[in-house]
Prior knowledge:
Elements: H1 2-38, H2 57-69, E1 76-78, H3 86-89, E2 96-98, E3 103-106, H4 112-124, H5 128-153, H6 156-167, H7 170-175, H8 182-201, H9 205-219, H10 229-239, H11 244-273, H12 285-291, H13 311-321, H14 323-337, H15 347-370, H16 377-394, H17 409-438
Antiparallel strand pairs: 1-3, 2-3
Amino acid sequence: xxxxxxxxxxxxxxxxxxxxxxxxxxxxxxxxxxxxxxxxxxxxxxxxxxxxxxxxxxxxxxxxxxxxxxxxxxxxxxxxxxxxxxxxxxxxxxxxxxxxxxxxxxxxxxxxxxxxxxxxxxxxxxxxxxxxxxxxxxxxxxxxxxxxxxxxxxxxxxxxxxxxxxxxxxxxxxxxxxxxxxxxxxxxxxxxxxxxxxxxxxxxxxxxxxxxxxxxxxxxxxxxxxxxxxxxxxxxxxxxxxxxxxxxxxxxxxxxxxxxxxxxxxxxxxxxxxxxxxxxxxxxxxxxxxxxxxxxxxxxxxxxxxxxxxxxxxxxxxxxxxxxxxxxxxxxxxxxxxxxxxxxxxxxxxxxxxxxxxxxxxxxxxxxxxxxxxxxxxxxxxxxxxxxxxxxxxxxxxxxxxxxxxxxxxxxxxxxxxxxxxxxxxxxxxxxxxxxxxx
Length: 439
């Protein structure tokens, strides 16, 4: 009996090691090939070089990391690197504060990814390799967390299929080469949900409270997870125990832990801007887009919000005064969110993204439907998070890029893995039945 258990453990360890190493090799090899062979550009460059991996939104994190290493505090920027003078380039709702002649502080984006880059640049220098190696490790570990979550809520076969889909997912593979938040955010989500589900199934409070720390860090990486916290706490109240008081106590401790993780960021904002908040100002991108004369979701709108100074009032007044256009835009964004590609993609990107969509999305929805009778409380939480994220971005004011759905891809792969595991079992059963008839 002990030999059998040792063999099973050995086999699982071998599978996990194979998953991790395969993910690492693919993320190194394909990113290098993409940059060197396809784009004919050097893979290892300075982060200050004009490159799609380190430009646009990535620049805000990179320059904040450099400013931090220069002793200017978290979330500050040097106006000498790019044309980013806040007097001319910031929307009216954005708050900033001059530090000295060259630096200013802001809270446009959450701080954790910039701190992550600061550590990478401190160790490896200001080049793309410095952040690439840590990110491919995080991305490869995410494949293991997908395995653990799928095994926890379904079975080992589903876990194997789901993790393999994530290992070979070209979108997540290539995105690990970009200095953007998604790789770290997805890693934290995978780790947090795994610890939470495992902690609840084993009634292990330590795992649950560690998951709260991870979720707090996720909120400091992408602000989009903050509105999900009330749902998370409600789920915890009803999932930990039949004793609701015990569940409420556990959820309350989780809330306190997450608050403690977020507290330094709130205090910093209060000290610098006299405003205690955990939210960053990327939530106001709608107003910034309108002030720059852009259209909202391809739909012409009226403004009707200028008389309000508080950002949330600006947004609410805008929605009220442009309600029909806003609803039309929400529907349009919802459809784009679930679509295989957008019009702005290159032709070669449409090919591989379209193929990935065919492999993942139909199978994931089928998996949700056929597994509904076997849903545990943990499955409900994952499903709610998937659709929460879709609805949030449909109702939000971000652009139409499909990168905003990357955080839910690993979770969709879990349900796709369930579909493929059921197909495999039916084929296996059919072959076994046929052989039995022949005998």
